[in-house]
TrEMBL record, chain A:
Coiled-coil features, chain-numbered ranges: none
Origin organism lineage: Eukaryota, Viridiplantae, Streptophyta, Embryophyta, Tracheophyta
Residue ranges constituting the PCI domain according to the UniProt record: 79-251
Name of this protein: 26S proteasome non-ATPase regulatory subunitA
Species of the source: Sesamum angolense
Keyword Acetylation in annotation: no
This protein's GO CC annotations: cytosol; nucleus; proteasome regulatory particle, lid subcomplex
From TrEMBL, chain B:
Family designation: Belongs to the proteasome subunit S3 family.
Record field: transmembrane: none
Top-level taxon: Eukaryota
Protein name: 26S proteasome non-ATPase regulatory subunit
Record's keyword annotation contains DNA-binding: no
Residue ranges of the region described as Disordered: 1-24, 462-491
Gene Ontology MF terms: enzyme regulator activity
Every PCI domain range: 252-433
InterPro entries: CSN3 (IPR050756), PCI_dom (IPR000717), PSMD3_C (IPR013586), TPR_PSMD3_N (IPR057985), WH_DNA-bd_sf (IPR036390)
Biological source species: Sesamum angolense
Keywords: Proteasome
GO CC annotation, single: proteasome regulatory particle, lid subcomplex
Composition skew (Basic and acidic residues), residue ranges: 468-484
Length: 267, 491
């Protein structure tokens, strides 16, 4: 066996052991070691050279990056997640024919979709979605994210929140919690426009707070313009388009003059 | 092997009847070759464009014997290119060969080694192989830096990519095409650039790689939009016309791909513009292309909340193909979630072959919105439970769903209403008199501005392009003068 390969495998074993112990600091330092070691293999993307150990090396590298992605979720580092995911992606797309499919593929792709949703990058969300085959869309992990996006767009927020109970994978919980925060802001924005007033009790339930104190803190921080009177929250209604009382004469004169100029050019 | 046998059988039947026609086809090919030759010597691109059009007309008459005779005629027998290309053409009956070699021997002048003719031979063989459904045998060609080759080469790229697409391994060509595109850009070979960019976009979109396609598109040299307007306006100058018509077709394709990318990335307004423009600019004969454009345009307009007119679906030759999209539009227009679901299921196979499945999933949201708008218009006050029932929301807690959906619609400005949480009502607001606001004045102004702008653009398009020959010449002169003065100084 290739000595380089043995070395990587050994480091990876130590990484996995630390991973199981939940010793994430060790994991992070081992991971950077592993990434440097991986650059020594020519069979990996972007070179994809045909070496005798190519399949083995590709599988190992894919495994490492899969763990890296999961690790970044555990350490709650979204930037690292994005980096590791992009490094992992070629293993799923460009070496599909050569490697047996990984059992981790769909959970990780679903996780990425969820991340894009949390970061409100809907365009990229849909671009990623187009890459998936119809059979992949039926996978519970992917389906979960797709349905979330739909409910989110429709405004069925309670469906988004109840989806937290049905997460297909334990790593999803982190993003679901983040999503809950986004959803709360959305609900607050919508209620502001839709209601004249809400009783404190209703507002607390709607914004998913467990106590009135939390609600008051939230209002103070995020929406100081809301008024609290007689046990209800009054929203300041946005100014509506008032009927125009006077004619904007200057603007009209300008427009008419420009029409005249243009018409003159035509004639 | 079976393929070969089949092919021989196919040819066995017509070969007798062809014996009279084949010399004439060959004669045509020779005429074309002569045309290309003069074109190459006089550097007139126009002649070569005509030659290609002529070839497409002859396409149906191509067969192995004519082709091998032509190869003997145009290429130096025994040369590398000749032997390579001849190996793709199946051997014919000896009799046929004799007839052809006899005719070609009498007429063929000594040696041709023009690069244009070589490329043309490649093109012919490739077309022939595609017509014979032998997609697996690709032949590639070397490249040359000559303006007159550009036209031929761009056709060659097109058939090259097509042959790979038909075998289903389009991904393999990506590297080659990218390299060719780079070369074409370096050489200012506009036609090659346009062709290759379109081929690459098609390549990426074939695998749904919208991200890569957009990155390439945004970084590649931009298509010159004005050249395409000229194609429509400057019909008098034949040379211009022929050239620009080609690039206008490319532009059309490019707009279609652009529209697709933008649709996926949720830029619906821009996408609609590109797709409608592509559908309008496509030649009448390109029915399949126009149908595709219309399909996508319909969906994009639905996503934008517009309802396409009935005439869109009644265009000649498109009624049947657009039928699923017509029913879909109907469902969205009525705002009936149930009907929408049945339509989506009924035509699921059509939508998935059009690859519009995911877009249709996005439409669900619009259906709900339309339904909600209808309710809000018809009722001044309605309970949320009734709203949920009317929208046919099927979930665990329909009232709560309805409440949050309505509140989001209010925030997005889709309906004008307020919610009453304690009573569980939705109260629609009276629609005020729009003519008491400045709104109509603003709308009127934007329309006038649009018309005036259109007129100005039309006038501008009639002018000669900014970098006309005069400017170029004067620039060259200046350069020459500069270099002269420099060399003088050096002395």
């Amino acid at each position: 066996m290739d000595p380089k390969l043995t070395e990587v495998s050994q480091v990876f074993e130590r990484f996995k052991a630390a991973f199981v112990r939940k010793d994430f600091d060790t994991c992070t330092s081992l991971l950077s070691q592993l990434k440097v070691l991986l650059t020594g293999f020519k069979s990996l993307p972007p070179l994809f050279e045909e070496t005798p150990n190519a399949i083995h090396e590709l599988t190992l590298a894919r495994d490492i990056y899969e763990h890296a992605v999961v690790l970044s979720v555990k350490t709650e580092d979204q930037d690292a997640f994005e980096r590791d995911f992009f490094q992992l992606k070629p293993y799923y797309t460009d070496s599909r024919g050569r490697l047996p499919p990984s059992p981790q593929e769909y959970p990780i792709l679903g996780l990425n979709l969820l991340r894009l949703l949390v970061q409100n990058r809907i365009a990229e969300f849909h671009t990623e979605l187009e890459l998936l085959s119809p059979s992949a869309l039926d996978n519970p992990c992917i389906k979960h994210a797709v349905e979330l996006e739909q409910s989110f767009m429709e405004g069925a927020y309670n469906r988004v929140l109840s989806a937290r109970q049905t997460v297909p994978h334990e790593t999803y919980v982190y993003f679901m919690d983040l999503l809950a925060k986004t959803v709360r802001d959305e609900i607050a924005g919508c209620s502001e426009k839709a209601y004249d007033s809400l009783s404190l009790n209703d507002a607390r339930q709607m914004l998913l707070f467990s106590s009135d104190k939390e609600l008051l803190e939230y209002i103070n921080e995020e929406h100081p313009e809301w008024e609290i009177k007689n046990g209800s929250v009054f929203f300041q209604r946005a100014k509506e388009s008032v009927p125009c009382k006077e004619i904007p004469s200057l603007q009209l004169i300008n427009q008419t003059l420009s029409y005249a100029r243009e018409l003159e050019r035509i004639v | 092997m079976t393929q070969d046998v089949e092919m021989k059988e196919q040819q066995a039947a017509p070969s007798n009847s062809l014996s009279s026609t084949s010399p004439s086809t060959l004669q045509h090919l020779k005429d074309i070759a002569a045309l290309i030759e003069t074109g190459a010597y006089t550097r007139e691109v126009r002649r070569i464009v005509r030659a290609i059009r002529w070839t497409i007309q002859l396409r149906k008459k191509l067969n192995a014997s004519v082709l091998s005779a032509f190869l003997n005629f145009s290429l130096v027998p025994g040369s590398e290119v000749h032997s390579r290309l001849s190996s793709y053409v199946p051997k014919e009956d000896e009799q046929d060969m004799e007839v052809d070699t006899a005719t070609s021997a009498t007429q063929a002048p000594a040696k041709h080694s023009l690069p244009e003719l070589e490329i043309y031979s490649y093109l012919l063989v490739l077309i022939f192989l595609i017509d014979q459904k032998r997609y697996n045998e690709h032949c590639t060609s070397k490249d040359l830096n000559r303006r007159t080759v550009d036209v031929l080469a761009s056709r060659l790229y097109f058939y090259y990519s097509l042959s790979y697409e038909l075998t289903g391994d389009l991904a393999e060509t990506r590297g080659t095409l990218l390299a060719l595109h780079r070369t074409a850009t370096l050489r200012h070979d506009e036609l090659g650039q346009e062709t290759l960019l379109n081929l690459l976009l098609r390549n990426y979109l074939h695998y749904n790689l919208y991200d890569q396609a957009e990155k390439l598109r945004s970084k590649a040299p931009r298509f010159e939009a004005h050249s395409n307007q000229q194609a429509n306006l400057m019909t008098l100058l034949e040379l211009f016309y022929v050239n620009q018509l080609h690039s206008s077709l490319h532009f059309c394709r490019y707009l279609f791909y652009l529209g697709k990318i933008r649709t996926i990335q949720l830029e619906y307004t821009d996408a609609k513009e590109s797709l409608l423009q592509a559908a309008r600019k496509a030649p009448v004969s390109a029915l399949g292309f126009r149908i595709q454009c219309n399909k996508w345009a319909v969906i994009v307009r639905l996503l934008l909340g517009e309802i396409p007119e009935r005439t869109v679906f009644m265009q000649k030759g498109m009624e049947k193909a657009l039928r699923p999209y017509f029913e879909l539009t109907n469902a969205v227009r009525i705002g009936d979630l149930e009907l929408f679901k049945t339509v989506a299921e009924k035509f699921a196979s059509t939508f998935s072959s059009d690859r519009t499945n995911n877009l249709i999933v996005r439409l669900r949201h619009n259906v709900i919105r339309t339904g909600l708008r209808n309710i809000s218009i018809s009722y001044s006050r309605i309970s949320l439970a009734d709203v949920a029932k009317k929208l046919r929301l099927d979930s665990a807690n329909p009232v709560a769903d309805a409440e949050s959906i309505v509140s989001k619609a209010i925030r997005d400005g889709a309906i004008d209403a307020t919610l009453d949480h304690t009573n569980g009502w939705m109260v629609s607001k009276e629609t005020g008199d729009i003519y008491s606001t400045n709104e109509p004045q603003i709308a009127f102004n934007s329309r006038i501005a649009f018309c005036l702008n259109m007129h100005n653009e039309a006038v501008r398009a009639l002018r000669f392009p900014p970098n006309s020959h005069k400017e170029k010449e004067s620039a060259e002169k200046e350069e020459r003068d500069n270099s002269k003065s420099k060399s003088l100084q050096n002395i």
